[in-house]
Design brief:
By secondary structure, the protein is mainly beta. It has helices at residues 175-179, 203-218, 245-264; strands at residues 4-14, 17-25, 29-30, 41-47, 52-53, 58-65, 70-74, 79-81, 89-97, 102-106, 110-112, 117-126, 131-140, 153-160, 164-171, 189-197, 226-232, 235-242. The strands form two sheets. Strands 3, 4, 5, 7, 8, 10, 11, 13, 16, 17 and 18 form an eleven-stranded mixed β-sheet that branches. It has a seven-stranded mixed β-sheet with strand order 2-1-6-9-12-14-15. Helix 2 (203-218) runs antiparallel to helix 3 (245-264). The model has no long low-confidence stretch (mean pLDDT 95).
């Protein structure tokens, strides 16, 4: 029997404190709000108790950040897309940032098990002055557990309407894509870190974001398979390929820290759950 779950998360500023409230149907929850950086930034952990999706499951996640609020959302573990008998597993995430809001969208990786049939959609809508820092990390199969990605299909969709669209279809039968130097070159982890704004970045700030990402990347073990670009004036993105999740996630965390310092004048405060 498939799971259908929905969660609506809302951040607002109340008495100079960012406050999170949520409504849900089905197995999606937000844990207690934490304030390791003071009242202005609210940290939350999104929990999906079943731990993964099978064919027919659907998760709908929406987050709205009100004017001037700053939320941070992560997860306690990977999102798992399990083997499917034919039906698709779907995850849709909609992020809406109002005037001068900030959001850090930092879920841990998505794991695509062999024979999965899954789609993962992320859509961001930003009002003037709003800024979002987030990432998307996907691993194909569990090669270290002897479970390579030999059959199955995964669709990854990231969109800022009217500004940026990335849509990739990974089919395990597409050996040219998976193995070619012009494709994934045998790597099994794809990672993207993005900084998206509701108002076009001026050249100096855009260059600051690119320079900060490139300085970290040049000193990292993944420097040959990672790069930072700015497809337009409202998006800066770092992309990386890696043989497994750990080095990719390490790189993204380091660049996030550099961007926080350079773009927001904030420290590199990691969510507490990352250290458990």
């Amino acid at each position: 029997m498939p799971w259908h779950a929905r969660l609506q998360l809302n951040y607002t500023v109340e008495n100079a404190r960012t406050v999170a409230r949520f409504e849900h149907n089905g197995p999606l929850r937000i844990l207690q709000s934490l304030y390791p950086e003071g009242d202005a930034i609210c940290h939350n952990v999104l929990v999906h108790p079943p731990g993964g999706l099978v064919g027919g499951d659907t998760l709908d996640i929406s987050a709205t950040v009100g004017p001037g609020a700053h939320g941070l959302v992560t997860t306690p573990g990977a999102t798992r897309f399990y083997r499917s008998a034919g039906a698709r597993a779907l995850q849709h995430t909609y992020l809406t940032l109002e005037d001068n809001a900030r959001l850090e969208w930092l879920p841990l990786e998505a794991l695509c098990y062999n024979a999965c049939h899954a789609e993962n959609h992320l859509t961001l809508n930003l009002a003037p002055g709003a800024e979002c820092m987030g990432w998307d990390v996907t691993a194909l199969g569990l090669p270290h557990a002897g479970q390579p990605f030999e059959t199955g299909r995964f669709v990854q969709h990231i969109e800022v309407p009217g500004q940026w669209l990335e849509r990739g279809v990974i089919d395990a039968a597409d050996h040219r894509l998976l193995q070619s130097p012009l494709g994934l070159a045998g790597q099994r982890c794809m990672a993207s870190l993005f900084f998206v704004t509701g108002t076009p970045l001026d050249k100096a700030r855009r260059d600051t974001a690119l320079d900060a990402a490139r300085a970290v990347t040049d000193a990292h073990a993944l420097r040959a398979t990672a790069g930072a670009t700015s497809p337009n004036g409202q998006v800066v993105v770092l992309r990386a390929l890696a043989p497994q999740v750990e080095p990719a996630m390490q790189l993204l965390k380091q660049v996030r820290a550099a961007w926080r310092a350079a773009l927001w004048q904030l420290g590199a405060e990691p969510p507490r759950i990352w250290s458990t």
